[in-house]
Amino acid sequence: MKTAHESGLLGRLDLNLFRVFAMIYQQRNLTRAAQLLHLSQSAVSHALARLREQLGDPLFIREGRGVLPTPLAEQLAPGILDALDSLQDSLRTLQSFDPAQARRRVRLNMPEQMEPLLLPQAIACLAEQAPLLQVHSSSLHWAELRRELELGRIDLAVEIARPTDTELRQCQLLQEPLCVMAPAGFAGELDAARYLQAEHVAVTSRRRGLCVEDLALAQQGLQRQVRQRCQHYLSAALLVRQRGWLLSLPRRYAELLNAGLGNRLLDMPIALPAVTLNLYWARRLDNDPAHRWLRQTLLELAQRQAVDE
To answer: Does the keyword DNA-binding apply (predicted)?
Structure first.
């Protein structure tokens, strides 16, 4: 049971200040908190000053370019975050979403190399159920992408599996086994020794360092000969035909690219893990009806494609 003192303190507090407190606590930065709350930095500073005065504690102290919570803030934070999440969940249950009537822009982010494989089928699937949706696709590097997701400027991202923080959610979308594209004149079978001795073209957006296949090979103590690096699988596939190099890439994408090239598609002779692509989204959108429908629709599409294979 609440004491009279506790009830009086709660009655004097502006509960909107707790939203500001929660965002500062999560972001550890007043500027980022202001952006996510769609407030000016001065408004956030003023709200924090009011809460400090009412609670009699600094709550956050400056540390470098950000802030750190005081012991009292650490003590308050779990209860405040849980209460705000519960309130948000309660409000979202009152909302409904009708895909057939939805007029909104869906912003997807995916690796540029994979867009030809993923985007056309995603648009076709969404258009069947939500013909008024507009789908915009982009390709951002991970550091920028994380921030755009948190700010709500990207709805969903498709990316390789990677560790993330508590502000982002992820789940597996699909797995694509690797195969090897070889020139039409490549004779005979491809075994591990022949694969490692051959010259390869690799596709990567990294300026330096190993690409995914080479990292997987290195974990087995193996190394191949990469003769050329490029940014797009189409460029690499053309180089396979022109120069006779080998290209390792996801099987379905290889079939799509090779339709007009006439290269050979061979099984990967070394046991390498499939390319795993995950869906990423902001945690605060977990229970948003429109976003939940979008995630579920894309996951069901990926599951149907896996069964068809």
So the answer is: yes
